[in-house]
Amino acid sequence: GENVEQHPSTLSVQEGDSAVIKCTYSDSASNYFPWYKQELGKRPQLIIDIRSNVGEKKDQRIAVTLNKTAKHFSLHITETQPEDSAVYFCAASRGRANFGNEKLTFGTGTRLTIIP
Amino acid sequence: NAGVTQTPKFRVLKTGQSMTLLCAQDMNHEYMYWYRQDPGMGLRLIHYSVGEGTTAKGEVPDGYNVSRLKKQNFLLGLESAAPSQTSVYFCASSRPLGDQYFGPGTRLLVL
After folding, report:
1. Are B75 and B23 contacting, i.e. CB atoms less than 8 angstroms apart?
2. Mutate to test the interface with B, among A43, A98, A99 (most CBs of B within 10 A)
């Protein structure tokens, strides 16, 4: 099955600086890569996702890049703010195309702390 | 529109007891999922369902059973709870080509 590795497990950055979180995956058939943000005691919430036919996707201060050849994808947060402090999870799936193939495999999470 | 809801929010069980966690969604989603979240291990899929009356095993199904008798509900059962099942349980739902929306979670402690 799919295996997703996420690094680093913890990350501290000064407010205003950029943060980068990286994930690698093992299943070359994976074609959907979402990122979730989870604040303390709250539910995971989707913040951005990318599909295998796209190399980069941006949404305001958040961007995700995908390198299918190397089987890794990254989350980039620019101009970080205190409210960006949370745990971030990457995930990978073969789904989005085949019925019944929607299983997400999650990374182990990155605890991001923004230092004021 | 409540989205995805879970009951109970918190529960303490003794080893060997049974319980059922309820997940409900009002978004008319076909797919529903149960995950467990443990420190340092991310979210792991327990069981999932692609439609009313159908269920399938995920990554860590042992010790759990599920049922999807109604499209809007997905039940997770623990027949004989073990301390290793102490965790936070999240339910999620989605359309077949849509994003997964998570419930608020159920914190379970098995003594």
Report:
1. yes
2. A43
HSE-CB at B15 with a 13 A cutoff on CA atoms is 4
Nearest Cβ partner for A104 among B40, B45, B50: B45
- Indicate if the pLDDT at residue A62 is higher than 60: yes
Chain A residue with minimal CA distance to B93?
A102
Q: How many CA atoms lie within 13 A of A53 on its CB side?
A: 2
Q: Rounded to the nearest 5°, which phi and psi values hold at B83?
A: -55, -30
Backbone torsions φ then ψ of A71, nearest 5 degrees? 55, 50
Q: Which residues of A touch B42 (CB under 8 A)?
A: 6, 89, 106-109
pLDDT at A103: 82
Task: Give pLDDT, residue A101.
Answer: 52
Residue of B nearest to A50 (CA): B99
DSSP 3-state assignment of B76? strand
Check CB contact of B41 with chain A, cutoff 8 Å.
yes
**Closest residue in B to A100 (Cα–Cα):** B50
Which mean pLDDT values do the consecutive 10-residue runs of chain B (111 residues) have? 92 97 96 93 92 92 96 97 97 88 96 96
Are the C-beta atoms of B48 and B34 separated by less than 8 Å?
A: yes
- CA separation, residue B19 to residues A70, B61, B63, B86 (Å): 44, 16, 12, 13
CA A16 to CA B34: how far, in whole Å?
Answer: 37
Q: Which helix (H) or strand (E) holds B103?
A: none
